[in-house]
């Protein structure tokens, strides 16, 4: 069963190897965990629902307390702290489970007639507060799209698949695979997040180099709004004015509820493999990545870990034999100290993969990269969706983990990365209450464009002796670093979306007139502001 | 000097070979040309300007009659008929020539204060009426962006170039080439159209397979609006809500005037070549194209001519020796009759080109394609921007030429193409006054996506014995076929934009709520509706 207060399935636990533990103790000190409250104690806190009975929708709505608890929070660190402490603050008044666009229309009519706020809910994997209800005079109804999880149509000639918006990643891929197709969209939340959520939050998958972001995959579909049904026709490309699809992408529930998603799918590839190259230092490694993507080498994924992330990953992975062997080889070639690990993926026909592999190896070796084959790449592929489980293991040891991510142009990558890492590493020391605390901070670049790349920074710090103080530490790091990002040419999010947590920083990025455009768009479709209020736009 | 009443430079004329003429006579009958009026007679018709002197902008504005004539029309067939007959109807009251964003701000303030309509003007190459002034109680000021035509900045690391919005294609490429870069955006209007116009009308270039459409190239920039300056930051990709760039792309002057355009540029490629393959029939040829693009073969361009276009091109090209040799070879392989010509481009590193060439040849041969090398491809490349000049030659012989273009999903390509060709070929016969007239109609597919492709249909018909009747014939063909397109899953334009000519058909494509979104966006930035009125949205 799904964990009610953390990531993924209760049955699945990831063990941190002993070397990993001592590595962390060495970096940030020994952790002492905060105690988790029980589900029962939280259930007892849930207030009466404020929803009144309505025969048109009663069958669709569940006001059971456990359903309301399970839909109250996402997966951000403050969400974890709320769930672990039991201090949820607000619960939705009910959870609706529509099974059709018609059901969703009924829910919208009901919400409008009864002045109820609606929050669309996909996999509940938001790390930016998208699905959290806020305190409100109006009742809040969370709409769980999970009942709409089928492949509705597959056009093999045009390679377009139509899905119910609530279809989670594994069901997207398994239903396509049965016909020989793949979508190829693999965000780290893949196990739980949904195709509708990907569109609503403009997500990006690990193999975006081949398949594109969700913007490139989203071909059209259906959105139910308070003004009626918005049908987005599938057209391969058009110069007929602004693209309405682009207004729905990233709309985060403010325009309407996405009920059907049409996506551009691909035939299952002939081949796929992941390869690892080590570089002697960051400069060479980053330049090699830039050259690969600006050269249009046909890779399907590319990821570059900083020296600290490389060291951390190898330590946490707990393969001492493999590592010592690797270090020996690398030290012979002068790249053991400060080494940076690059992983690249090859996907496609055997000719494409062979040609791209040669080209990638040639470019890497120009920057002194040491190619080590597919052994570590296989491990990455096996564990690609399990990293969130590590957070659970670290939590049990008294460590909080969070990530901040952005994207910026190449000329600004090192500058912004340095500012972010510095702000997170030293930020706790700026506060009197945590002046002796430090965070362990490491970064990878994982989405590459000719123009620039994403920056994905992880930080691990010890929980404080109370939930309140732990949250205050997080809030300090999050706020100061988010402000730095948008003041220094970064986007407030490359792949997590805006939600409620990033909304205060959006106006710096979009500017006054950009915000005017977004606000006017939301107000056009939802003048009363009952759809996912305070999300995207404060 | 630029032609005042047609395409391109007066010095440049394209001769139609004698075989081409007899080919056309055979298809639609012998043409007898309408007589063109002189520039002088048109100048005499231009009314007094209604613009009042204003010291803040007087230096920027030219009310000279010739300037007003030269900015009154684009390049659509009705524009040609207006210019050739002298029946312009409406002229702008003046032409402003700003040289900076500040100048544009002044013009906007002046327009708002004095209730004047503004029409942004790039290269004047619209074939959909974008820049045509309409009869209005308010004075109309056309803003020619041609003074802002410089490369302002080049960031080599991030591969981003900043241009003044009025920079025409040749100046974009020559200024980049001096530094070893290319934009790679080559619409057929390349000689005259501008980078700001490409963004405003969402254009696509002949090598979109490699470089992408303008949507993929447009990284950010500056838009002057009535509400202030909209700065679009360059960010490689983002999940931070709806993308404001996508609202400017295709906005056709309704939101503001684009003054600076930042684009994603590429290093000049190592290699480039164009190759021609003949297929025995349309089905095989179209399927080969679909397979090439769905297989992600790294081509830089792809174009497939229907059997009639293939025959027409070979006839109009006037290389009888080459053709008879070619037909001999093809007939040996069973593909002389009904043959379809495909041209594909290879651009990139020598390894990429070699690998893609092998893959392309393998896929083509699976569909019985006969590879003929680069000879015809070289001719295509040499003549790629001269086709509009052919229109002049045909006009002189009494033939009118126009094109209709769309894009649709693969499963609908043949259906829509058949409807369009039928409607254009037989449409004149439905009118009493032209029941004995037929049009010569042919098509190519020239922009390819995994999901579908563009359909570009050319039609040639004899001019009538008057301008009025010629216009009526065009209007009939245009309206009936445009209606067919949007009623049958096509976009009203894949690469020409909406303008005023396509605006009546946009609501079918976008739907009621799509139009609501676009209208609300325009009204947010221009509540009085003084920016390019009736364009995009009627």
Automatic annotation (TrEMBL), chains A, B:
<feature type="binding site">
    <location>
        <begin position="252"/>
        <end position="258"/>
    </location>
    <ligand>
        <name>FAD</name>
    </ligand>
</feature>
<comment type="similarity">
    <text>Belongs to the FAD-binding oxidoreductase/transferase type 4 family.</text>
</comment>
<feature type="active site" description="Proton donor/acceptor">
    <location>
        <position position="456"/>
    </location>
</feature>
<keyword id="KW-0274">FAD</keyword>
<dbReference type="InterPro" id="IPR016166">
    <property type="entry name" value="FAD-bd_PCMH"/>
</dbReference>
<dbReference type="InterPro" id="IPR016171">
    <property type="entry name" value="Vanillyl_alc_oxidase_C-sub2"/>
</dbReference>
<dbReference type="InterPro" id="IPR016164">
    <property type="entry name" value="FAD-linked_Oxase-like_C"/>
</dbReference>
<dbReference type="InterPro" id="IPR036318">
    <property type="entry name" value="FAD-bd_PCMH-like_sf"/>
</dbReference>
<protein>
    <submittedName>
        <fullName>Alkyldihydroxyacetonephosphate synthase</fullName>
    </submittedName>
</protein>
<dbReference type="Pfam" id="PF02913">
    <property type="entry name" value="FAD-oxidase_C"/>
</dbReference>
<dbReference type="GO" id="GO:0008610">
    <property type="term" value="P:lipid biosynthetic process"/>
</dbReference>
<dbReference type="InterPro" id="IPR025650">
    <property type="entry name" value="Alkyl-DHAP_Synthase"/>
</dbReference>
<dbReference type="GO" id="GO:0071949">
    <property type="term" value="F:FAD binding"/>
</dbReference>
<dbReference type="InterPro" id="IPR016169">
    <property type="entry name" value="FAD-bd_PCMH_sub2"/>
</dbReference>
<keyword id="KW-0285">Flavoprotein</keyword>
<dbReference type="InterPro" id="IPR006094">
    <property type="entry name" value="Oxid_FAD_bind_N"/>
</dbReference>
<feature type="site" description="Important for enzyme activity">
    <location>
        <position position="303"/>
    </location>
</feature>
<feature type="binding site">
    <location>
        <position position="391"/>
    </location>
    <ligand>
        <name>substrate</name>
    </ligand>
</feature>
<dbReference type="Pfam" id="PF01565">
    <property type="entry name" value="FAD_binding_4"/>
</dbReference>
<dbReference type="GO" id="GO:0008609">
    <property type="term" value="F:alkylglycerone-phosphate synthase activity"/>
</dbReference>
<dbReference type="InterPro" id="IPR004113">
    <property type="entry name" value="FAD-bd_oxidored_4_C"/>
</dbReference>
<dbReference type="InterPro" id="IPR016167">
    <property type="entry name" value="FAD-bd_PCMH_sub1"/>
</dbReference>
<feature type="domain" description="FAD-binding PCMH-type">
    <location>
        <begin position="88"/>
        <end position="268"/>
    </location>
</feature>
<feature type="binding site">
    <location>
        <begin position="120"/>
        <end position="126"/>
    </location>
    <ligand>
        <name>FAD</name>
    </ligand>
</feature>
């Amino acid at each position: 069963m799904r964990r009610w207060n953390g990531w993924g399935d209760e049955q699945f636990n990831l063990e941190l190897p002993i070397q990993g533990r001592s590595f962390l103790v060495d970096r940030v000190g020994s952790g002492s965990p905060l105690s988790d409250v029980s589900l029962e104690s939280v259930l007892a806190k849930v207030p009466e629902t404020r929803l009144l009975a309505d025969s048109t929708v009663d069958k669709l709505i569940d006001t059971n307390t456990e359903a309301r608890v399970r839909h109250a929070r996402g997966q951000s660190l403050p969400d974890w702290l709320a769930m672990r402490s039991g201090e949820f603050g607000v619960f939705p008044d009910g959870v609706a489970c529509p099974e059709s666009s018609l059901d969703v229309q009924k829910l919208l009519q009901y919400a409008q007639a009864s002045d109820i706020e609606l929050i669309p809910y996909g996999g509940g994997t938001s790390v930016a507060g998208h699905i959290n209800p806020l305190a409100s005079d109006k009742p809040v109804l969370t709409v769980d799209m999970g009942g709409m999880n089928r492949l509705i149509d597959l056009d093999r000639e045009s390679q377009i698949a139509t899905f119910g918006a609530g279809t989670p990643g594994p069901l997207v891929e398994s239903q396509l695979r049965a016909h020989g197709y793949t979508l190829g969209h693999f965000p780290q939340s893949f196990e739980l997040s949904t195709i509708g959520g990907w569109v609503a939050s403009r997500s990006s998958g690990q193999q975006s180099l081949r398949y594109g972001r969700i913007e490139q995959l989203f071909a059209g579909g259906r959105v139910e709004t308070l003004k009626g049904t918005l049908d987005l026709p599938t057209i391969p490309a058009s110069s007929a004015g602004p693209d309405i699809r682009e207004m729905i992408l990233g709309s985060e529930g403010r325009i309407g509820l996405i009920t059907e998603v049409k996506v551009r799918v691909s035939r299952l590839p002939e081949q796929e493999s992941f390869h690892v190259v080590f570089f002697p230092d960051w400069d060479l490694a980053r330049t090699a990545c830039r050259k690969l993507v600006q050269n249009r080498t046909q890779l399907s994924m590319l990821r570059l870990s900083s020296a600290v992330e490389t060291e951390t990953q190898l330590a946490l992975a707990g393969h001492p034999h493999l590592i010592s062997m690797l270090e020996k080889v690398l030290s012979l070639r002068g790249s053991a100290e400060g080494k940076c690990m690059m992983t690249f993926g090859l996907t496609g026909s055997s000719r494409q993969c062979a040609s791209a592999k040669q080209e990638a190896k040639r470019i890497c070796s120009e920057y002194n990269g040491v190619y080590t084959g597919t052994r570590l790449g296989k491990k990455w592929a096996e564990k690609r969706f399990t990293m969130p489980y590590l957070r659970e293991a670290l939590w049990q040891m008294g460590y909080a983990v969070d990530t901040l991510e952005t994207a910026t142009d190449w000329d600004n990558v090192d500058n912004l990365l340095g500012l972010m890492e510095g702000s997170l590493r030293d930020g706790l020391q700026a506060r009197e209450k945590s002046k002796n605390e430090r965070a362990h901070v490491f970064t990878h670049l994982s989405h590459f464009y000719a123009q620039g790349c994403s920056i994905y920074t992880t930080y691990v710090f010890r929980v404080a002796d109370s939930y309140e103080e732990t949250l205050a530490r997080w809030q300090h790091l999050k706020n100061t670093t988010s402000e730095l990002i948008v003041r220094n040419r970064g986007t407030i999010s490359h792949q997590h979306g805006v939600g409620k947590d990033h909304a205060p920083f959006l106006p710096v990025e979009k500017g006054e007139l950009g915000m005017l455009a977004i606000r006017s768009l939301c107000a056009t479709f939802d003048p009363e502001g009952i759809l996912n209020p305070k999300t995207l736009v404060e």
